[in-house]
Amino acid sequence: MDESARTAGSDLDIVVCLPDDAAGHRASFRWRGWPVEVFANPEAGHRWFLEKETAQRKPTLARMIATGVQVAGAPGAAEMYQAECGALLEAGPTPSDTALEDLRYSMTDLLDDLAYVRDSGEATVMRHLLWERTAHLALAAMGRWDGGGKWLLRELRAWDPVWAVRWLGARDDGEALVALAKDTLEVAGGPVFEGYLRAAPVVYATGLHGSGRSAPSR
Length: 218
Fold this sequence. Notes:
By secondary structure, the chain is mainly alpha-helical. It folds into two domains: about 10-90, no CATH class; about 95-185, no CATH class. Helices cover about 50% and strands about 10% of the residues. The chain has eight helices and three strands, in the order E-E-E-H-H-H-H-H-H-H-H. It has helices spanning about 45-55, 60-65, 80-90, 95-115, 120-140, 150-160, 160-170, 175-185; strands at about 10-20, 25-30, 35-40. A three-stranded mixed beta sheet has the order 1-3-2. Helix 2 (about 60-65) crosses helix 3, helix 4 (about 95-115) packs antiparallel against helix 5 and helix 5 crosses helix 6 (about 150-160).
């Protein structure tokens, strides 16, 4: 962990590799007043989370493993996994045209709604959503890892500190926010509306799709 980012409330993240037949779990507790979070899984479980988080462009577990310090187990046992996760972080996320188009579509819709909103409360909520989604879109368009909470800003600063300052400054300036959002949307490929299509997931196979009837009870 970057010591400059540590605060009095920072918790201790511990990754535990369990035997193959053990059940994975996540646990939170305090040790001598220090908040601790444990992420315990067999190797297959850890790899499942790594794959899932990589697809979401939020490499939380990969970062914990790559930057962590081995405190138990055979000496050097974690080296291979740390090298693997370090290489994953360095390579960056796999580009996804579908995910980027989804973000562009949601931004287009939000900008349109904000342009015609009449309720001040609704406008406040939409500006907050637009501010955060602009950051997510910028990172996606640039092929960067994404983040939530404090990690959203950290990823922005790692990518472009100047842009991050502009983004922070636009939070309470409606005109600056809309301008930044539109600029970001253009760089990402422009607005998306006409022609946007996504197939609905098939929840159950009954032959009743589109009939308006509910699923049969079991």
